[in-house]
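Lab notebook, bench 4. We co-purified these components, and the gel suggests they stay together. Before we commit to crystallization screens, I want a quick structural picture of the whole thing.
Request: model the full complex, all chains together.
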Amino acid sequence: MAFNVPDAKPLIEDEFVGEAAKRALQYIQTKRAAGMPVAGIYCGYAPMEVIRAVGAVPAILCAFANKTIAAAEAVLPANLCPLIKSSYGFIITDTCPFFGISDAVVAETTCDGKKKMFELISEYKPMFVMDLPQLPDEKEALANWAVMITKLQGFLEKTFEKSATPEGIEAEIKATNIKNRLMNRVFDCAARKPSLLKWSETYELVFLAQVATTEDLQATFQEVFKTLEEREAKGVHYGTASAPRVLVTGCPVGGDSTKVYKIIEEAGGVVVAMDSCTGMKPFMTEIEENTGDPIAAVAARYLQLPCSCMTPNTRRLDELDKTIARFQPDVVIEVVLHACHSYNIESYKIMNHAKNKHNLPYLKIETDYSDGDVEQIRTRVEALFDSL
Amino acid sequence: MTVFNIPGPLINDRYKSDQVGRFLDYILKRREEGTPVVGLYCGYAPVELIRAMGAVPVSLCASSQRTIPAAEAVLPANLCPLIKSSFGFIRTSTCLFYELSEAVIGETTCDGKKKMFELISHLKPTHVMDLPQLPDEEDVRERWTEMVRKLKIFLETTFQAEIAADRLESEIKETNKKCRLIDGFFDYAALHPPPLNWQELYDVIGLDAVTNSGELQSLMAGITSTLDERVAAGICFGSPASPRVLVSGCPIGGDASKVLKIIEEAGGVIVALEACSGMKGYSIRIDEGTGDPLRAVAEATLKIPCSCMTPNRSRLEMLDEMIARFKPDVVIDVVLHACHAYNVESYKITKHVQDRHALPSLKIETDYSDGDVEQIRTRVEALFDSL
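Here is the predicted assembly.
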């Protein structure tokens, strides 16, 4: 799969093309050199607006490489999610530059594996674990989560010897909303038939946009939209009009697990929607502005994230409906990382929903970061596309 | 002398060692009297609330390999056998206790259960409690009390009944009396060598669910007198030289009790069972006469040192107490396949018993099948050989 012209200009044209992590690292290093503390995060539930309002820069910690898993398995069980094993392996082998420059780590009780893994790294850096309510529709869930966010604010303020004001958080809310709207304009281009972007371009932009401020992203956005307008004007698009459009949902996909995206492309599909925390999910909801209680507004927004750690996670089905309507996929492929129980069990509901409500073919791929199953996945994806 | 056949039943009623039969008859009898049945899966479910409403709590089926293939048609194979078994029982309508239940209580203790409950919640009124996971946070007791309060509302609404504070207070006292009786009974397991085996421990551990404190007291009088006779006659299980084993970790029942059998067959005596299916719950007391019995119940359940808590320091403290009391020679940590929380925590447990107590430890990861029996046997025998 390729662009219909041989020389399509990359969406973000700099020295880091194809190296999203290095681009993010350079950004964070620049901020750190300017005196900003760094808050390492692992998850979309980390409230970015509060981290930024405290004057810190968020860093998404390494979690996507097979190479650190062997080291992790000296302590952690082999039968555990590769993301958790990889994260832990990076820390004990001291090979995650983002962790190295983090002054504190923000963690959440999203799943059994992470929750217990965090205990084993709590000695390395100041760490704050947030007790995430798991029943988002209960009326006290919001209040409990707001309390947790306030506690996180206190932790960050104390650790960084800085402080955040309600006005500062409100300003960050507005900045997030602006960023999310811009990101959604980009996603709209991915939704075009045929798509104007390659999955890796969206992936790279998402990687940067999660850590960079809206202000710092302005130049990038300008360039991105200029490129997309040019593509549109020149009729440049990615893949063919007849290529199967794929919505990929499920666990975060990054680093070594992007093999799944690559296989989908190699099999002739176009990934048009990436419904995961490393994809479009973090940008899908807006935060209510001018409520007078910015912490509560932030809490409400994060509690809306349709992660499988929530029960019941009916929002995921609602969001899936919207995503399907918007991106018009021909097929839904769910990626479940090995031993991620919550996405794995929830996939049964997602499958029924995709098939019954949307009449879409559905394929579940359970995988890890190794390359041992590449050909097996390829066979299944190809068979799926053949059946369309 | 090593004795592995202890004379006479420990519980001298018509059920003897038939725990399920005793339990089933009890539930059926209560149901005939018009008592509603509430099913539960976990020690975090506050049974005092259910009893105070005039209902009877029942632990639902979760420990058989037989129902797992049916479950795997929907659930992933790589999941804890307890969860798969539970779901399989429901799917195949083979758990009589579930069939008899008019409502089910679940908790967000682990990823697998939490998501499995979603798949059964349409079958019966099912109430899932959002369990806080950070026991050291100062507002955790408030949060959990609120959840217990919501359970009370669920029960009262579902059964159109009322849970009065004074009834709850008397159920607290009941639970405490029963826990004291059973916890006191564990002193016999601490004897060296013990006058009873793990099966007998298990038989007694189930009794609080089917008795009131008065009935338990009279049963216990018979049990202790039998044990005293054994002690006086020098009858014991194993020999003074048998390795004393503390078994910790995941709940062990039904098909998973293969591990306990293997330990015995390898010449060990099980003197302490740490899990929720063992002694864990009986060391916890509920505060009496606080004026707020609902909060007292909530605070007591929150003391359960389950690996779903982070950090779960009280488990190490409970282990310290159990090691001091039961004087094991070795700790065997049993982790059910794909139970991430106990599996990851196992690293801390084995390190703790090795570093702090200088005890050898062995982690056994297993499921309900019998495919690994000989492998486990080899490892347990090797462990005992090394003592």
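Chain A is about 50% helix and 10% strand. Worth comparing against the SEC data before the next meeting. Chain A has a mean pLDDT of 97.
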